[in-house]
Fold this sequence. Notes:
This protein has helices at about 1-15, 20-45, 65-70, 80-85, 90-110, 125-135, 135-140, 155-160. The chain is mostly helical. The chain folds into two domains: about 1-45, no CATH class; about 55-195, Di-heme elbow motif domain (Multiheme cytochrome fold), CATH 1.10.3820.10. The longest helix is centred in the first third of the chain and has 24 residues, at about 20-45. The N and C termini lie far apart (about 75 Å). The relative contact order is 0.16.
Amino acid sequence: MFRRALSGLYFLATLQFLSKPWRIACFAALGVLAGLALTVGKVSRATSYLSDAPETCVNCHVMQPHYASWQRSSHANVATCNDCHVPHQTLFHAYAFKARDGLYHSAIFTARLEPQVIRISSGAIPVVEENCRRCHERTIGEVALCTHERGDPRCWDCHREVPHGRTRSLSATPRVIVPELPSVLESHAPRIGGREPREQKTHSHE
C-alpha cells in the first residue's frame, strides 16, 4: 500500500502522464517561475519582514514620515512598530496579521493607489488600542479605564502627538534619512507580548 502510494506520487511529480516534450516544457516553466519568485524575494528583501526591526517598514517609501516621527518620539527607545501595530495573542496571530496586511499593502503600493497621507485602517484600530492598553496597563488601571466600550474615545483621541505627530505626509519629511533594510539573520524574530525596552544608543563626539 505504502509502495503504491509512493509510486503514485512519483508518477504525478515527474509528470509521467504527459508526453516528453510537454514534460520538458512544464519543468522549464516551473524553473522560470521559481527563478522569478526568488528574484522578487531578493529584491523586495522579503526575509526582512520576518524580523522585528522598525527599519523594515521603510521598505515602502510612503512609510518614511512614520519611521522618522517614531524615531524621534518617546516610543523609540521602548517600542517597535510590531509592538504597537501587530496583535500579541500568539505567534500565529502575529504572522497572520502581518501576512494579511502585507499582501494588501503590496497590492496598493504596486498599483500606486496609496494616499498622500496614510491613516490607520478600521481593522488595525482595535489592535493598536489593545497594545496601548497592554503597555500602559498600570496607568489606565489607576484611572479605571481598563475596558473599552463602544463609543468610548480611543487613546489617540487625546494623545494625538504620540508617537507620529499630527503631520504625517511624504511632503512633511522630504529629506528624511532612510536606513538600510535589515536582514532577518541580523535581527531578532518578533516577540509575543512586546519586546524588552531598547538600550539607548550613545554617540561619542570627537
